[in-house]
Design goal:
The chain folds into four domains: 3-42 and 162-213 and 272-422, HUPs (Rossmann fold); 56-140, 2-Layer Sandwich (Gyrase A, domain 2); 215-271; 433-610, Orthogonal Bundle (Isoleucyl-tRNA Synthetase, Domain 1), CATH 1.10.730.10. The protein has 23 helices and 14 strands. By secondary structure, it is of the alpha/beta class. It is globular.
Length: 618
């Protein structure tokens, strides 16, 4: 909901205080969300998710881990090394050190103990200092397929964190600038994390911490007064605002005094100047209208929109308490800075010499507001990695103010750059996100038209949008968020290999098999016979999906789901080539049909967690 439109409408009455009105509207939004959460809790909505013990694969691993913790003080299984198709891996280095033996000897001992202790373990092998184990497939396969058929779209979810709340701040673009490819990462990483956290029982409040305040807005207001092109603004207001912002910085290179003009303008806005406030609200409303179009295309739904300005009335209290507790000091020029006694981090400003608050103060105020209103166990900030120091300073300050700093986490991500370097709004070197999405859809549409000319225009449009937007999202989420990405059209829009279209097509292929099969017998575990090697490998991959989702949540890593899905689809491709389905009879046919159905379900569930649509045809 665009709260700025409501503020702008209210500002038609000159007696209305802009920030008081923003406070009233913002609190009403917060209270609405709290009421929705309360209703969900009363209805026990999280109880509609399976318990973690539902998944036999996870139970097997949990039993082994518990046993090893008691016998060897090993608290965690290792991630299975790449290139090894094991169900679990035990690191044996600590045991070897404690016993004064070689890691290989410790691994051999642990492998033998595990085989004797657990009847569901088929074999355990030694590789270096690891004991890698494999589960017996028949019982695991039957239970996995039964669980997938029962829970369907909820297969992979769990009540692991039922009753707990998490706040995730993401997207958070700046007002008066079009969303660029640089904003894509925070938006889709945050949306995916929200879905992944919800899948594990969390109640998640997604917050768009809109960049609607600060000196940059004063600069824009000054630029509008000096150089605004009314006709350009009427046609494309956000792009005209960007042009003005860039022009301000170009002019300021020759006339540094303009920087002071921008600061003066922001100071007036912060103090509630009616004319500037009315203009500010309208510019923010226009910007958010533009961003909501992007969100709709990407399928992004953020629960709460509150800009930096919402917290400006709370910054005075933050600064006063920091001074009172000797966390901050007032400098000779009247600016206020936090100085850390242990010098772990450099000092940083909360307020400038003219009294204007800085975004660090607003971030602290925002964090306290979220704790007060939602009582979350976690507050996650999906913000670029270049802000790492800032968040470390803010979190430490929150700890000094008496809050549990362990509740706060910065999920930093790498930069997006053009071939000539980092994207910079000031220099105007940006690829607009709307243009990227448009070209992705256009390119996907050409491929769809070539391969399926018989489709109606409406069908072609639906497929092109799902494929094009899916390609953009997967291109990002399939990579570790910490990595820097150099943006190129070819990479972003690749329709081959480890990509969304590759996964979407596998889903279409699976659904086509099921459609051709006609009526499929009711699922019965006793009819499932998993014998062929590719049947075993595929069902074990299906069994691993809940573990992959849980790991993605624990590590805040959507790429874990993407990597899993790519591996699943590769395994499904080998199964498709080696295990005929429709030409087989009796239990073999039935088993393979349910393997196909479960694979399709997992692809759909996994892509949904990434924010990517599946299609019945491509």
């Amino acid at each position: 909901m665009n709260i700025y439109r409501k503020i702008a409408d209210a500002m038609q009455d000159s007696s209305v205080s802009v920030f008081a009105e923003e406070e009233k509207i913002g609190l009403a939004e917060v209270n609405h969300i709290k009421e929705v959460i309360s209703q969900k809790e009363k209805q026990g909505e999280f109880l509609n998710l399976p318990e973690s013990e539902t998944y036999l694969f996870s139970k097997y691993r949990g039993d082994i881990q518990y046993f090893l913790s008691k016998k060897y003080d090993l608290t965690q299984l290792a991630e299975v090394p790449k290139g090894i198709d094991a169900d679990f891996a035990v690191p044996c280095f600590a045991v070897a050190k404690g016993k004064g033996i070689k890691p290989q000897e410790a691994a051999l001992e642990i492998a033998e103990v595990i085989k004797k202790e657990f009847s569901f373990v088929d074999r355990a092998e030694v590789a270096g200092g690891y004991a890698n184990g494999y589960f017996k497939t028949q019982e695991l396969g039957k239970e996995t397929l039964a669980t997938a058929m029962k829970w369907k779209e909820k297969y992979g979810t769990s009540q692991e964190w039922k009753g707990r709340k998490a706040v995730i701040e993401y997207s958070s673009p700046n007002a008066a600038k079009p969303m660029s490819v640089g904003h894509l990462r925070s938006t889709i990483i945050g949306e995916s994390l929200k879905k992944i956290y919800e899948s594990q029982g969390f109640t998640v409040i997604g917050i768009n911490h809109f960049g609607d305040f600060g000196t940059q807005f004063g600069k824009l207001l000054y630029a509008i007064a000096q150089w605004k092109d009314d006709s350009a603004f009427a046609k494309e207001p956000v792009k005209e605002m960007l042009r003005l912002y860039v022009k301000f910085h170009e002019e300021a290179k020759n006339d540094p005094a303009l920087e002071d003009k921008g600061r003066e303008m922001f100071k007036k806005l912060e103090e509630g100047d009616v004319a500037l406030a009315r203009q500010w609200a309208e510019l923010c409303a226009v910007s958010m209208d533009d961003f909501e179009k992007i969100y709709a295309m990407l399928g992004v739904k953020i629960d709460l929109l509150l800009g930096e300005s919402f917290y400006q009335s709370r910054t005075a209290g933050v600064i006063a308490r920091c001074l009172e507790k000797n966390i901050a000091v007032k400098n000779e020029d009247d600016s206020v800075a936090v100085n850390f006694v242990d010098e772990e981090f450099p000092s940083f400003l909360l307020a400038k010499k003219d009294g204007s608050s800085l975004y660090a103060a607003r971030d602290i105020a925002a964090a306290e507001f979220r704790l007060e209103q939602f009582d979350p166990v976690k507050i996650i900030y999906v913000v670029g990695g270049e802000q790492t120091l800032h968040f470390r300073q803010v979190f430490k300050t929150l700890g000094l103010l008496g809050h549990d700093k362990e509740k706060f986490k910065h999920d930093g991500f790498g930069l997006v750059s053009l071939l000539e370097g980092k994207m910079s709004t000031r220099e105007g070197r940006v690829i607009f996100l709307e243009d990227l999405i448009g070209e992705a859809i256009e390119r996907a549409g050409k491929i769809v038209a070539e391969k399926n000319p018989e489709l109606t225009d409406a069908e072609k449009k639906e497929i092109a949008e799902a494929v094009g937007i899916g390609a953009i999202i997967y291109n990002d989420l399939s990579q570790s968020k910490e990595k820097n990405i150099q943006f190129t059209w070819d990479r972003a829009l690749s329709m081959e290999g480890n990509s969304a279209p590759y996964l979407q097509y596998a889903y279409v292929r699976a659904m086509s098999i099921l459609k051709k099969a006609g009526d499929i017998p009711e699922f019965k575990k006793e009819n499932i016979v998993i014998e062929a090697e590719q049947e075993q490998k595929l069902v074990r991959m299906i069994a691993r999906f809940p573990e992959a989702v849980l790991r993605a949540q624990v590590e805040d890593a959507p790429h874990v789901v993407a990597t899993y899905l790519n591996a699943l689809v590769q395994e499904f491709g080998r199964f498709y080539n080696e295990c005929p389905v429709l030409t087989k009879e009796s239990n073999t046919r039935e088993t393979r049909l349910y393997l196909v159905r479960a694979t399709a379900q997992v692809i759909k569930n996994g892509l949904s967690l990434l924010g990517i649509k599946t299609l019945d045809r491509m």
